[in-house]
Design brief:
The complex is a heterodimer of chains A (75) and B (473). Chain A is mainly α and 75 residues long. Chain A is built from 3 helices and no strands. In chain A, helix 1 (2-21) runs antiparallel to helix 2 (42-64). In chain B, 78% of the residues lie in helices and 2% in strands. Chain B is built from 20 helices and 4 strands. A two-stranded antiparallel ribbon of chain B has the order 1-4. A two-stranded antiparallel ribbon of chain B has the order 2-3. In chain B, helix 10 packs across helix 17 (382-394). Chain B starts with a helix and ends in a 10-residue tail after the last strand. The chains are: A mainly alpha (75), B mainly alpha (473). Chain A binds chain B through residues 11-12, 15, 18-19, 22-24, 27-33, 36, 38-44, 47-48, 50-55, 57-59, 61-62, 65, 67-68, 70-71, 74, and chain B through 71-72, 74-75, 78-79, 81-83, 85-86, 88-90, 93, 97, 100, 208-214, 217, 221-222, 224-227, 233, 235, 238-239, 242, 264-266, 269-270, 272-273, 276-277, 279-280, 287.
Chain lengths: 75, 473
């Protein structure tokens, strides 16, 4: 249970960090579209990767969310 | 095209009739009518949440937003949706635990109980009413514009709007929330299919993703980076939009209701993940349509772009599917929003259950009529009006999160502060006060201030005394 709580917290911190870096020049340098990836402009491919990572984190979150165990115990 | 519209239209109408009849029960309880028996499985849950979330705002608004503001529009919606599904996991758990063992009668009713103060419910209802109705109105208008372009001169725009409102009312009256959820499932799949067919056709125009952006670079290079040609998509605008979109499952009652009526916690959690994947799949093709518009129709207005990209440039069968897909997208969202307002009204009413249901149904009718009038008078960009709607209801976020999460007896100050925040935001929308202070957007200032106020309220709240229930020894 303690481990789950720790993993859940790591997921939360990772989601917050990913969300925040999206609004920094690391992802949206103003007026810059390079380096491209497969012809896709920089801000688009980096933010696409962030979106996918957020969804993956959500999936991991469903596995480690400490509340699931609570519900099972309640049942 | 008319032939195909009839074919797809009849199939769609048939599926709607089937769904509403399947949901209809003669002696159903008000709980079954308003909350679908609180027993929604994973597939239906994902599709109903997605259909309520991705509306004409996504179908028409996002291609137009990409066309005008460029690729950073992805951050505006897709990254924000990715973060939102994570928050959904966290908030969904807490709200489901909160309502466990009690009858859920909408967020307004719940929040009144949390604060033991009915004003909290009224303030929440007011914000929902003020910001959902214009949003519903502009979606109905979006469909009407599109139908007018498809069948010029057949009906006035208001005639199409009236027809849509009528279908919405009849449909929700027959089947209640369950019918809306069934129809959402049909509409969610239809929306995904149609947007990909049109997106693919637009991508084929360029010959691939790389050539598409090469071409756009020669047409308008600003579209390939933030803040875009209009200078709109600045980090601050995008960050404030993220907060507004994050608050959607918390503050927009049609989504909160769907979280609560999911069959189990596990189903709700898997729904959040699937919704994230659905969001990526739905938003991706809108980039292709937007870039197509930037290449061919950059000088055109909104309506001409819609008509050309979705109708005139497509084969007849695809154009017909686009019409049906758009009706589906608009109908599912407007239906969900109007019904949710009715559900919130029900949570605030007191008295005999039959009289409450009658008043709720009258309320749904009145909300639909008001939305219809808005659809005639509102003129704005779909996406920007949607964003105002998200931000306006988002102001209630700190109050709701505090009420649901805090285990302390907190001061009602946050209720009055949220009401003040709502009034200030309305004043700025009306142009009576500025919407920027010290180069910071007013909505961002309100989110931060109310967030801090909520934290202080929690820290200064008094711990509730737990009273053990008496047991027979």
């Amino acid at each position: 249970m303690e481990k789950k709580r720790l993993y859940w917290r790591i997921c939360c911190v990772a989601a917050i960090i990913l969300s925040i870096i999206t609004f920094t020049p690391l992802v949206i340098p103003q007026g810059v579209s390079k380096p491209e990836l497969g012809g896709v402009p920089y801000s688009l491919w980096t933010s696409f990767v962030i979106t996918v990572l957020l969804v993956i984190l959500t999936y991991i979150g469903t596995r480690v969310h400490p509340g699931m165990q609570n519900e099972e115990e309640d049942l | 095209m008319i032939f195909w519209v009839w074919v797809f239209g009849l199939i769609y109408a048939g599926l709607l009739v089937f769904a509403s009849l399947r949901s209809y029960k003669k002696n159903r309880s008000s709980e079954e009518f308003m909350m679908a028996g609180s027993n929604i499985g994973l597939t239906l849950g994902v599709l109903t949440f997605a259909a309520a979330l991705f509306s004409t705002f996504t179908f028409l608004g996002m291609p137009d937003f990409f066309r005008i503001n460029g690729v950073a529009a992805w951050i505006f919606l897709a990254v924000s949706d990715g973060a939102m599904v994570f928050l959904l996991l966290w908030f969904g758990y807490h709200i489901r635990m909160k309502v466990k063992g009690m009858e859920f009668r909408g967020v307004a009713g719940l929040i009144s109980r949390c604060y033991e103060n009915r004003l909290a419910g009224y303030v929440f209802f007011l914000s929902s009413f003020l910001f959902l109705i214009p949003y519903v109105g502009i979606q109905i208008q979006g469909i009407a514009i599109f139908m007018d372009a498809a069948f010029p001169g057949s009906f006035p725009a208001w005639g199409w709007s009236a027809g849509i409102v009528l279908i919405m009312l009849v449909y929700s009256e027959i089947g209640g929330l369950k019918a809306i959820i069934f129809s959402d499932a049909i509409q969610g799949l239809l929306l995904l299919g149609v947007i990909w067919i049109i997106g693919w056709a637009c991508l084929s125009h360029f010959g691939g993703i790389g050539p598409m952006f090469d071409k756009i670079g020669t047409v308008q290079e600003d579209l390939l980076s933030s803040p875009g040609p209009q200078g709109l998509l600045t980090p601050q605008f995008l960050f404030a939009s993220l907060i507004a979109i994050l608050m959607i499952p918390v503050t927009q009652p049609q989504f909160t209701t769907r979280i609560v009526v999911m069959k189990s916690m596990k189903t709700m959690q898997l729904m959040a993940v699937s919704l994230g994947a659905f969001a990526i799949l739905v938003i991706l093709p809108t980039i292709f349509i937007g870039m197509y518009g930037a290449d061919l129709y950059s000088e055109y207005g909104r309506d001409e772009f819609f008509a050309n990209a979705f109708l005139y440039d497509q084969p007849d069968a695809v154009a017909a599917l686009a019409i049906i897909g758009l009706i589906a997208a608009g109908l599912s969202t407007t239906n969900a929003q109007i019904f949710a307002l009715g559900s919130e009204l029900r949570g605030l009413l007191r008295g005999n259950e039959n009289s409450i249901m009658t008043k709720t149904k009258i309320g749904i009718f009145v909300f639909s009529v008001i939305a219809f009038f808005f659809s005639i008078i509102v003129i704005d960009q779909l996406v920007l009006l949607a964003r105002v709607s998200f931000a306006g209801t988002g102001i209630m976020g700190p109050m709701i999160i505090l009420g649901i999460l805090s285990n302390r007896k907190v001061s009602p100050a946050i209720i009055y502060l949220s009401l003040t925040g709502l009034i200030i935001f309305l004043l700025s929308l009306g142009g009576w006060i500025p919407d920027m202070y010290f180069d910071i957007r007013l909505d961002l200032i309100l989110f931060i201030t109310l967030g801090i106020a909520a934290v202080i309220s929690h820290l200064t709240g008094t711990k509730r005394q737990l009273i053990r229930p008496k047991t027979n020894e």
